[in-house]
Amino acid sequence: MTTNPTPFAVESFAPLAAAEASHWWFCARNRVLLWILQHKIPVFQTLLEVGCGTGYVLEAIRQSYPQATLYGSEFFEEGLVFARQRIPTATFTQLDARLLQDHQRYQVIGAFDVLEHIDEDVLVLENLAHALTHRGHLLITVPQHTWLWSRVDEQACHVRRYSRRELLRKLRSVGLEVEYVTSFVSLLLPMMVMARRRAQDTDYDPMVEFRLTTWLNRSLEAVMSLELILLKLGITFPMGGSLLVLARKP
User: Fold this and answer.
1) How far apart are CA 186 and CA 231, in angstroms?
2) Where do the structural domains in the chain lie, given as residue ranges?
3) With a threshold of 0.85, does the pTM exceed it?
4) Could you tell me the mean pLDDT of each successive run of 10 residues in the chain, 250 residues long?
5) What is the DSSP letter of 46?
6) Phi, psi of 179 (to 5 degrees)
7) Are 222 and 113 in contact (CB under 8 A)?
């Protein structure tokens, strides 16, 4: 999902849908998100994913929570074509998150690498807070560290990378209480910095990150598996390529 004036390559949804299930980044992020849901949030019955894309995250949630009522919204119909195929039991809506008007409807809302595409991110956070039930939870991931900004972000139609202070301030400004926060993709941060610097020096191909050798893809996923173990042990990371925040509506 994006409301950024920069055109998003909607033709990317098909290769994205084909690559997600085996790509280290999407697999690792799903494991982190499912761990948060299972260990940080009480039992829930309703969940909305905003900017659900091809439905890869929502499909994993369905497998872990078969009795929950799931909803997905996405700015681009091209993504929803795949999402509806993946989770036929979920309810999907093509929607600009700036126009979300639901009131106290969802016990959990997820926005996974969505806010960075939207200029009016505080407006979207207000809408999400309004749509949460009393004591409902908002789970967010965003790209972190403004100093990591590169051509990769430009090609992905990002309008910002977040600092921890900025995102927490914006969440609190809409009346949400932060319950848990950590960076992730932390152990791989040095490699990420080098990759971003190389991207600045050449004509960046946004699909290059989907053309990894098998050994490299497995190695990166193994590092992320170690990172998840550390998170489960109670370690939180101060720095990392991504930031995860769990917030609650009072």
Assistant:
1) 11
2) 10-248
3) yes
4) 47 86 96 97 94 97 97 96 97 97 97 97 98 98 96 90 98 98 97 82 66 92 98 97 98
5) E
6) -105, -30
7) no
- Its sign, for the CA torsion 83, 65, 22, 30, is positive
Q: How far apart are CA 84 and CA 13, in angstroms?
A: 13
- Choose among 28, 16, 17, 18: nearest CA to 188: 28
- For 22, 80, 187, 221, the CA distances from 214, given in Å and listed in that order, are 10, 29, 20, 11
Determine the Cα–Cα distance for residues 135 and 149; give it in Å rounded to an integer: 35
CATH entry, 10-248, from 3.40.50.150, 3.40.630.10, 3.30.450.20, 3.50.4.10: 3.40.50.150
Specify the length of the chain in residues: 250
